[in-house]
């Protein structure tokens, strides 16, 4: 089996946590500045969205890895693009009602806002996961080489 598809729950949590911590660090100040809300108000919304996204990230990536194992596709540019789009569509379904409530705006305004967020997160998701997978492959390969070396 491909070692890049063998991920523990602990690793999936680490992956999702890294993704979300960086996303909060970028989005809370940017959202406060662009939308005119306080950093605290946008920070709390960003945190709520992040918690939802973290749970979705873990579930979605487990399903995506399972689909890759069953269907045998490689993580090509096209596969990564499909991965990013499907992830964001699922997240939209959860985030729009939350944003509308928290910002006291209509669902349409929240949807338009979320489209802006998606336009940021599509390349962010792609870049983060591509970087993570490549760094993980390097780390796993080093670990396997060390494991294969006979004890001196």
What does this 3D model show about the protein?
With 152 residues, the chain is mostly helical. The chain contains four helices and no strands. It has helices at 9-35, 39-71, 77-103, 107-148. The longest helix is centred in the C-terminal third of the chain and has 42 residues, at 107-148. The mean pLDDT is 88.
Explain the layout of strands and helices:
Blueprint (H helix, E strand, L loop, with lengths): L8 H27 L3 H33 L5 H27 L3 H42 L4
Quick structural gist:
With 152 residues, the protein is an all-alpha fold. It has four helices and no strands.
Keywords:
4 helices, 152 residues, mainly alpha
State the helix count.
Answer: 4
Q: Taking Cα atoms only, what radius of gyration do you get, to the nearest Å?
A: 18 Å
The portion of residues assigned to helices is: over 70%
Question: Tell me, what's the shape?
Answer: elongated
Major sheet details:
none
Indicate the low-confidence ranges by residue numbers: none
Element order: H for helix, E for strand: HHHH
Distance between the termini: 29 Å
What's the total count of β strands? 0
Strand portion:
under 5%
What structural class is derived from the secondary structure elements?
A: mainly alpha
Rounded mean pLDDT is 88
């Amino acid at each position: 089996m491909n070692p890049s598809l063998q991920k523990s729950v602990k690793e999936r949590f680490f992956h999702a946590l890294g993704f979300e911590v960086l996303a909060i660090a970028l989005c809370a100040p940017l959202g406060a500045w662009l939308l005119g809300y306080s950093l605290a108000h946008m920070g709390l919304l960003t945190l709520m969205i992040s918690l939802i996204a973290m749970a979705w990230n873990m579930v979605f990536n487990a399903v995506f890895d399972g689909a890759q194992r069953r269907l045998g596709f490689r993580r090509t540019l096209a596969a990564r693009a499909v991965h990013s789009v499907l992830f964001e569509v699922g997240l939209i379904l959860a985030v729009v009602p939350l944003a509308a409530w928290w910002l006291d705006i209509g669902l349409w305004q929240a949807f338009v806002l979320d489209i802006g967020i998606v336009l940021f997160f599509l390349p962010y998701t792609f870049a983060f996961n591509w970087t993570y997978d490549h760094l993980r492959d390097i780390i796993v390969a080093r670990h396997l080489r060390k494991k294969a070396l006979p004890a001196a």
